[in-house]
Amino acid sequence: MKDFKKLLVWQKAMHLTDLVFDLYEELPWQKVAELKGQSTRASISIASNIAEGNSRRSEKDKLRFMEIALGSAFELETQTLVLRRRKWSPAPEAEVLLDTIQEVQRMLAGFMASLKGAGK
Q1: Superfamily of domain 4-118
Q2: How far is residue 64's CA from residue 51's CA, in Å, rounded to a whole number?
Q3: Which of 1, 12, 44, 80 is 20–30 Å from 51 (CA)?
Q4: 3-state secondary structure the chain
Q5: Which of 25-34, 69-78, 86-95 has the highest mean pLDDT?
Q6: What is the pTM of this model?
């Protein structure tokens, strides 16, 4: 059994989820209630799909779950950009979150490239 908790990309995705929850705890719920639900689900989806994908036997199956995780990362990036654009979030916190999202996206892209290479 593979331990997904040892994957650096999963660890970074969990950190990202913490950042999302921390940010939304500080924001007025009247303005961001819908975005909070979508953003927390997207952040949890990233880490969850990495974990589930890591359990799959074939590289093709693993790759599919990483693609879903990457899609959730782009979804979360869009939601964070809406927060920033509407000025509903303190700028420094939004920038830290965006930087972390982009780091997870790069890590996922690299992991996916390694999976594609392993499947040859």
Answers
A1: 23S rRNA-intervening sequence (1.20.1440.60)
A2: 12
A3: 80
A4: CCCHHHCHHHHHHHHHHHHHHHHHHHCCHHHHHHHHHHHHHHHHHHHHHHHHHHCCCCHHHHHHHHHHHHHHHHHHHHHHHHHHHCCCCCHHHHHHHHHHHHHHHHHHHHHHHHHHHHCC
A5: 69-78
A6: 0.92
